[in-house]
């Protein structure tokens, strides 16, 4: 089925909710990736090296689990919709604050706070979306929702490419600061949520069961009750984030360093890879409706293995672009199933907390993936990244497939009503 057909099958409320959640994740990623494209300019403005500014990326990733728990707990108590509105306003405010940071230290603090806000958006947004959407077609919407992250990356690159060279101000109007001011625009999405999106039916049903009282504050006892499930999800997401970081973070460096590609050619290969990611997420998300979540993930993960020669060992830009497309089709194909799979595996009473927190803890545990790969290349491969990237795919794709196959599946779980 086409995306138009799938969307037409939804009610107006369901379409508005899905659009808002997709756009929230896209704009969140847009704000995050603005930092990656502006690293050089920020370093020059603060008169430091790129390495020092790049620490902001670590702090953003490190603080995301805090946000996943904080905003997830708020969503359990006060509802998904108001929490998501607050969350979007927060990451927009911290993005705008970053534009006015007078020192590198203050910039780091603001990026850490942005990480808290970013950590909350995925879990709360996914819970709101899947508790509102019908079970039928959930895999398709999972694939589309997850690839909002890729869309945010492409959007940041497009805005940077179109505007940055025309921004030549000084002081608080330097190019990168204006870019971050633009990054505050997602706050407008809160108005859309306020007037077009309704609260999660599951949360409303749970509140009604409590005789109209607001749901009780999130309790750590719930985590202990579902601890085995939570630990499994954390391990699974550590493997998944290693899969994505392991094939994406150092690949531009590999293209420039190992293959000698100029920036324009490198950008071309990365964009083609992003298109593969978009295609893979939607394709395998949709296939998971027919073949099941686990089988779709396992097939996509193992499909990365035969892509290694073209992806890591070819030389021409066209061949490398083809390899990048096929590799990211497989990697993000597996990822496209994750929003639905994690939410289906998460118990109803903790659905706003579990998926996002497990996801962000996985991000934290794999946050040193890049330095680890670089160290391996230096020690064992004469500085060449190709063999290390290829080895990473071999190991991680098999681990992702094995963990998924060994775990449970709850495809079709009803989420639009309260669960015990």
TrEMBL record:
The chain crosses the membrane at residues 18-44, 56-75, 84-102, 174-193, 214-240, 260-284, 296-313, 388-407. It holds the Pfam family MFS_1. Keywords: Membrane, Transmembrane, Transmembrane helix. It is found in: Membrane. Residues 17-409 form the Major facilitator superfamily (MFS) profile domain. The lineage of its organism: Bacteria, Pseudomonadati, Acidobacteriota, Terriglobia, Terriglobales. One of its GO terms (cellular component) is plasma membrane. GO terms for molecular function: carboxylic acid transmembrane transporter activity. The keyword Transmembrane applies. This is MFS transporter, SHS family, lactate transporter. The keyword Transmembrane helix applies.
């Amino acid at each position: 089925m086409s995306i138009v057909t799938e969307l037409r099958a939804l009610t107006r409320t369901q379409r508005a909710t899905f659009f808002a959640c997709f756009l929230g994740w896209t704009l969140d990623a847009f704000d995050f990736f603005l930092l990656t494209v502006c690293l050089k300019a920020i370093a020059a403005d603060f008169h430091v090296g790129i390495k020092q500014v790049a620490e902001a990326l670590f702090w953003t990733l490190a603080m995301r689990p805090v946000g996943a728990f904080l905003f997830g707990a708020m969503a359990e108590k006060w509802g998904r919709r108001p929490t998501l509105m607050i969350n979007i306003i927060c990451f927009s405010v911290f993005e705008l604050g970053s534009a006015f940071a007078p020192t590198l230290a203050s910039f780091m603090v603001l990026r850490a706070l942005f990480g808290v806000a970013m950590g909350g958006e995925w879990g709360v947004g996914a819970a709101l979306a899947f508790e509102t959407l019908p079970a039928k077609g959930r895999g398709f919407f999972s694939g589309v929702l997850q690839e909002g992250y890729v869309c945010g990356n492409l959007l940041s690159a497009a805005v940077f490419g179109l505007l940055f060279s025309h921004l030549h101000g000084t002081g608080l109007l330097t190019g990168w600061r204006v870019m971050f001011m633009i990054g505050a625009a997602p706050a407008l999405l809160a108005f859309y949520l306020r007037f077009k999106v309704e609260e999660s039916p599951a949360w409303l049903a749970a509140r009604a069961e409590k005789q109209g009282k607001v749901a009780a504050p999130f309790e750590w006892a719930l985590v202990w009750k579902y601890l085995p499930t939570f630990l499994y999800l954390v391990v699974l997401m550590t493997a998944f984030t290693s899969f994505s970081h392991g094939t994406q973070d150092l690949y531009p460096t590999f293209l420039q360093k190992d293959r000698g590609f100029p920036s324009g050619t490198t950008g071309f290969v990365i964009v083609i890879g992003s298109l593969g990611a978009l295609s893979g997420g939607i394709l395998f998300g949709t296939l998971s409706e027919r073949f099941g979540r686990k089988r779709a993930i396992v097939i996509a993960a193992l499909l990365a293995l035969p892509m290694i020669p073209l992806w890591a060992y070819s030389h021409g830009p066209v061949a490398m672009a083809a390899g990048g497309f096929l590799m990211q089709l497989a990697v993000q194909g597996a990822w496209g199933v994750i929003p639905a799979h994690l939410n289906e595996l998460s118990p109803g009473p903790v659905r706003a907390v579990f998926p996002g927190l497990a996801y962000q803890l996985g991000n934290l545990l794999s946050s040193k993936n890049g330095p680890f790969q670089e160290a391996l290349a230096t020690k064992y491969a004469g500085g060449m990244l190709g063999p290390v990237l290829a080895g990473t795919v071999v190991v991680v794709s098999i681990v992702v497939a094995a963990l998924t196959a060994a775990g449970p599946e709850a495809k079709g779980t009803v989420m639009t009503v309260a669960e015990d």
